[in-house]
Amino acid sequence: MNATHPAHIQRRAIPAGFIEALRERFGDRLSTAAAVREHHGRDESPYAAMPPDAVVYATSTEEVAWVAAHCHRHHVPLIPYGVGSSLEGHLLAVQGGVSLDLSGMNHIVAVHAEDFTATVQAGVTRKQLNDHIRDTGLFFPIDPGADASLGGMAATRASGTNAVRYGTMRENVVSLKVVTADGRIIDTAGRARKSSAGYDLTRVFVGSEGTLGIITEVTVRLYPQPEAISAAICNFPDLRSAVQSVIEVIQMGVPVARVEFMDTAAVRATNAYSKLTLKESPLLLFEFHGSPSGVREQAETVQEIARANGGEDFAWAEHPEDRNRLWTARHNAYFAGLQLRPGCRSSTTDVCVPISRLAECVTETAAELDQASFPYTIVGHVGDGNFHVLMLLDPDNPAEFAESEALNRRLVERAIRMQGTCTGEHGVGLHKMPFMEMEFGRDALDLMAALKRAFDPHNILNPGKIIPSGPATEHAA
Amino acid sequence: MNATHPAHIQRRAIPAGFIEALRERFGDRLSTAAAVREHHGRDESPYAAMPPDAVVYATSTEEVAWVAAHCHRHHVPLIPYGVGSSLEGHLLAVQGGVSLDLSGMNHIVAVHAEDFTATVQAGVTRKQLNDHIRDTGLFFPIDPGADASLGGMAATRASGTNAVRYGTMRENVVSLKVVTADGRIIDTAGRARKSSAGYDLTRVFVGSEGTLGIITEVTVRLYPQPEAISAAICNFPDLRSAVQSVIEVIQMGVPVARVEFMDTAAVRATNAYSKLTLKESPLLLFEFHGSPSGVREQAETVQEIARANGGEDFAWAEHPEDRNRLWTARHNAYFAGLQLRPGCRSSTTDVCVPISRLAECVTETAAELDQASFPYTIVGHVGDGNFHVLMLLDPDNPAEFAESEALNRRLVERAIRMQGTCTGEHGVGLHKMPFMEMEFGRDALDLMAALKRAFDPHNILNPGKIIPSGPATEHAA
């Protein structure tokens, strides 16, 4: 899929002495080894690697600032790298330059349990944070499939299965420490729960995918671990009845913590991969958080609503081990799906629509995918109107890739037509760039480009991503 | 307080023919009458009016775009005006120009009950919206004291008593229709609950106080009306025990909908103004939303925690009329406070700190205020760490105003030292501008200024606000 190289995919020349200066500063924490560069030039997307010219392993915000200033001075691209779990080509060094590996910045800076906040370095992963705070009685709910770094999660505005109750990174980042394109260090906010003081720099950087600044510390909101948790599975005759149940559940004010949809193929794959015996029909997977009686009440209400919509076989998982098995299975749905076609290469996509349009959007999409020459699964964070399509492609058959891209395009067009978005939680990276103008219109995209130029006048920060702007030199000073 | 006129408060010359062109386009919806200009050159702050040169009453987004393009072409300031209820000098025409009155843009554009969203024109007020959607079983929770316009609430990132459970305008604006400085019309997002597509233009505009674009439509999230609601009052020996109770309540995961603090003076004022007989001690006012049994359980948990912290006289208000009387009294605390000193002029301020520092911050502040030569009250959205000080000044005694400004400065310095913010919900306007650098630092403020220049290169949108930038002509093209 590197057959065409548009203007924003053009390697820049690295000035003489640039790499040597990095080596002098970082010693063996600077690598130009092919394997290391290759590893840092890819993510979990199906794109072939586009390696950077060098990889620097940073251990402090000050080091990040030094690298940024160096790259700024010499107009060399700079791409922050966490654990490499992004899905849409975010990390590819399409214009070459330096990949800045932040995985060594993995210290918990502070936990303020009384304030329900934790401050961590960008390389700390979500599981590491939750392990660290377990004894405080608090937890951090945002859970993308991968054990992603908090810096990366902030940068892609990630979410996961808990967003219907707890929100996404948009709602849960309190403050960021950011290195600007020219190597200055700022804090976007204090630790107050709310503020009306000036422009919301925090949310300017959340979701900016490394193109406006480099996040080196993240302060996030924490939540009390629920006193009681229970999970339930319910089978439905079709997607429409499942979605209608979810709409009614939310309308009743039931504060459901998770509600996930899996199509029949995803259930089948999960059964095979995770040794489960779920009934192979469209299903909803619920989780309830609260007091013991509150959880019971929520579950009863949901069960009634589901039954009225044709749901059946409402099954409980009250024991932690049963619940964990279920959710581990759900988090592994991606890997399970891959096993449906051994040796395949996968292409994933995600869209998000207003929930009233979700059944229609998924049904139309599934009808198209049923005609495809490859297998697929659909899973969704259905309370948010967000769903994922996993397409399982023959790596040796370029026609299948082209077919999957055409299906992806029609899916995105459908979502945008329904007042939705081209990506609910994966981010834009390279893969969704062609749809930005369709979603936002030329004038809004111009504003985004103006913001990019204002924050990164030499276009060094993860250039060639998000905004389909011109070649590398267009905005150089 | 207009004695000193810094660089950002300099009227600009209006080019010949500029007003005439407006008159030709808008007829009698253009006014240059002194009384109309005076009315549009003030807000609820203690600042004396600084009237615009003209007032235009717009009725559509296209009209707003026409005015913006006209002002942009001629480098004339343009200040959007809703209902005039801002508190920090947001609306003063410090550089002259056009006040754009949006109160006539008061149509409900669409209610999507299944999606829990409503789209309204910027002039629709929060009460108007709630009246309109009453029969849907949904409500819009954000409730600043005034019946503000939704456009104004978005522009100031407003919140109110429900924020501890439902969030602020930051979390509850789904999308905005915005007119840019040069008169283009954009939509910042679709209606999906979440999106990872590109820069978060929605939150760039939320809280930008009319300085980056003119909001003409707002799409907000709605919530199901709770099945059951109850309210309770609890008296405490001091603020510290009240705040400690709130921390423990949140730590227990009780999803309290509202928790408000009133100091003894505020209670006394409220008793007098609203004909109530509340015990005159520091108190917390709670509200619980949920199912009948859920509400009962929440209340029991809170009562136990309060009692363990020295709270007493836990009193219930389960009947809607009792509850409404209480909350009306709370919303009228500002007017009640004014009656403590008949004929006074008030100066209000608000800060927000991490909740672990709230007791310390309020206690230190109250100790200073006890030495002041004027009366004051303190009320707070204590679950958020946000509180308000109302200072009651003799309008004929400039020394009192100077004293109140010095107290305000020390309060803000204290809040920022505690990792808080100079304003939790009022916004910056003119009054908090001097503290922006203290809170964010020079480098972050430079980024905000770069954002402003990128979005408004001629510095026409509510110029001289938020960012203490130079004189009017500094950024002119």
TrEMBL record, chains A, B:
Pfam families: FAD-oxidase_C (PF02913), FAD_binding_4 (PF01565). Keywords: FAD, Flavoprotein, Oxidoreductase, Transit peptide. This is D-lactate dehydrogenase (cytochrome). Its EC number is 1.1.2.4. Residues 48-225 form the FAD-binding PCMH-type domain. The keyword Disulfide bond does not apply. Its cofactor is FAD. It is an enzyme of class 1 (oxidoreductase). The keyword Transmembrane helix does not apply.
